[in-house]
């Protein structure tokens, strides 16, 4: 986990999900847009519990 309170879980080499250690944080998925740029989508990570 990072100081930002979120991280990414990978299955093999592919990102599988975003997780957080506290509420109120966000994650983003960034993918190529096909025109030389990127598209960023904000997502709500799954909150980890004890």
Describe the structure concisely for a colleague.
By secondary structure, the chain is an all-beta fold. It has one domain.
The count of domains is 1
Give the terminus-to-terminus CA distance. 14 Å
Q: Round the Cα radius of gyration to an integer and report it.
A: 12 Å
Beta-strand level of the residues, as a percent range?
over 45%
Structural classification: mainly beta
Question: Biggest β-sheet: count, sense, barrel?
Answer: 3 strands, mixed
The coarse overall form would be globular
Number of helices, counting only DSSP H or I runs of 4 residues or more: 0
What are the secondary-structure elements, in order, as H or E?
EEEEE
Whole-number average pLDDT? Answer: 89
Q: State the total count of DSSP E strands.
A: 5
What percentage of residues falls in helices of 4 or more residues? under 10%
- Low-pLDDT windows of residues: none
Main-sheet strand order equals 1-2-5
Descriptive overview:
By secondary structure, this protein is mainly beta. It has strands spanning 6-11, 14-20, 27-32, 38-43, 46-47. The chain has a three-stranded mixed beta sheet with strand order 1-2-5, with no helix packed on it.
